[in-house]
Amino acid sequence: MIYEEHLRAAESAGWSIDSIRWDAIDRGAARDEPHILASLRDASLIEGYLPTFAPRLMLLLWDDVDATAILSLELFEGLKHYTALRRYLEVVGDAATRSSEQMLVAAREGTRGITYDRDSIVTYLTHFMCSELFAAHFFRRLAEQTREPVLAELLEYMSKDELRHSAGAGALLRKRVLADPKVVDEIVAAAENFRHYGSDVVDIPLAEQNDFEAIMAMNRKIRQLCGLSPTEHLMEELTNG
Ligand SMILES: [Fe+2]
Question: Model-level pTM?
C-alpha cells in the first residue's frame, strides 16, 4: 500500500519542533536578511493554507484511500512547517509576524470561492506534485543563502519533507497511469501549464516559477511517470509543426 511506505518514510525522517535549537538562533544575523524573512512569511502562509487546500482535494479523492492518506500526511507536516516558521519568525522578532494569524485568515478568505472539478483531478494532483518539488528547491536554496545556522537546519529538514511529499503525489499518479495509460496526456498537459497552488494565497515570485533547477527536476519526474517530459513533448509538437 502506498500509504504505508510513505508513512514509514515520514516517521523515519522524524524531526520534531523540539529538535530545533530555538535558543541558538542568531537574531542579529536573521534580521540582517529581511528578504529571507519575507520569503519565510510567504512560505508560512502557503503551509498555513493546507487545512483548507488539502481537504478540498481530499473530498474529491474520497474513493482513493491512498490519496486521502498521502494528503493527510501533507496536512500534518504542512502544519508542522507552518508552526516552525511562525515560531522562528517570532523568536527573531520579525515585526510583520505579529499579525500573521489575521494575515493567514485573510489569505484563506481569498480562496473561499475556489472550487475544484472532479474531472480534472489528475491535473490538480500533477500541480500538487510539482508544487511540492518547487517548494523543496525553494527551501534548499534559502538554506544555502541564509547565514543564520538554525534556519539553515530547519530549511534542510523542510526541503527533505517536501521531496517526500512530491514523491507521494508521484506514487498516486503512477497508480493512475498503471490503471489507465491515457492519463499520461493529462499529466504532461498539466505539467506544461504548471501553476503552484501557493499562488492562491501569495504572489509566487517569477524567479521561483522560472527556477531552472526545479524545472529540470520536474521534467525528470514527469519523464519517470509518463516516459516523456513536458520539454520533450513541446519539442515533439514543434517538430511535428
Ligand atoms: Fe508539503
Answer: 0.89
